[in-house]
């Protein structure tokens, strides 16, 4: 039976939760649920932003409001916030944008940046993506980098300082931090050569983000637009064919696809903007040059109110985007879909949006699908079951599914400025998005990544690619370590390596490959909670000994959600006791203020030990007996 998988981890924009307005909160959660229902999978990333219309002194208060609402929302909990950070303010009395860039670079706003990272962490969001200076190449953006060389230099200096402060704050608060450099596609940008002038350097970019929409503003007179289909897509045609209206031109998918690829094209040139345009393909090519992954931070099929066409239901853009990414040859961290009327008519998942073809296209090309190679991972931890050392770090949430085989990666890093990032491919096909490890190799720690898929029972090729190498001198070197790889609970020989630069190592696992001594045991625990004034926490015990620090559960029991925690280690042969300890019970005299923990399942090496629903209403430990024969 094939697994359900996503071609890329999903992000979504459906507005913002509002903890102070139950009606708005319900609308947000309903919209989020509607998107997940259509797509056949939950999004991993949730889009939010700091309000650029308020003074920078109020940005922390704004972040606290968003984080509080996100923590209270059952559909936001457990997701990764992608936080848009403006670099200037339009509020009365605010400094000019260029002066704010200078202030950022001078460190004037460091405490605000640090406090915002902590605010999201305190709300339970220990993985954060920050989109710094969003759409800086558009003159309507609050982060517009300016038109002069001096202004652009100030913008770059500010961005570099913000990157450094965010990562330092993340290190202090134990946050898994990704900072994205995030321009927008445009068919006429006032910033020339944005990928060169405004790129701050590889040491200050974790992921290259791009906002790409299907809005239609083709070059040429609205009453005479070059038809790329009838003219055979030949530049300088001796007998050019024109359409007499934008509606007529947009009714042909060939014209749409050509425009999306070459947004500044005309009859005479693929780029009639004098070199100022920025397309998705430009960003893909630049990502290849820099060796960075990309993320589609925002995308939508079209704002028909603004572009003037009669294209109300547009599946062509969605299919074009899927085809472009499939053939891009770069790692895609996630695809963030705008399913909201905020900023334009981009909603599609609700029947009332009247976009059945577009909705079907999003579900078909970016939603959950059946595949012979499906990837999963949930919050995972590493634990040495027979020793005192353990590592309880968690990874990014991706898509959950069942499958025939499990792949367990034990990873660690040398930290410098940011956590080591890597991708995984099995038999030449990428599994999931970008993963980060925060376990320090020098401390002997390791972090487990559990992936599942319908791979071969025979030999499989696993490729680990280190994608964000950095070096700043002695003791300032980011490296990636593959400590071991297990396939279906068996650790294989030769599956350890140190990767010191942006490169890939390949490892063979499965039937016909030599096993390492001491196979790994994989323990998976599925949990949920009743949240009250914070999330439930648990500790894992092996034979009565605590082998993790407290782990946070964010999946709500009342929403029928569950959260998987996977642990790996070598159990000695015989009978063992597994304990799940609830460690932070709270009851504040009402059912709505009662924090509880629920055990929804437990399995060892793929075999169910417990399936059902065991509740822990007070601090205490539920125990289960397992048998191993290693």
Automatic annotation (TrEMBL):
Q: Which family does it belong to?
A: Belongs to the glycosyl hydrolase 26 family.
Using the UniProt annotation, give all residue ranges assigned to the region (Disordered): 373-399
Name the UniProt record assigns to this protein = GH26 domain-containing protein
Name the Gene Ontology molecular function terms of this record. Answer: hydrolase activity, hydrolyzing O-glycosyl compounds
- Record keywords, A-Z: Glycosidase, Hydrolase
Residues of the GH26 domain: 1-375
The organism named in the record is Acidisoma silvae
- Extract the Pfam families matched here: CBM60 (PF16841), Glyco_hydro_26 (PF02156)
Comp. bias intervals (Low complexity): 373-396
State if rRNA-binding is listed as a keyword: no
Q: Which residues form the active site?
A: 135 (proton donor), 298 (nucleophile)
Is the keyword Transit peptide assigned to this protein?
no
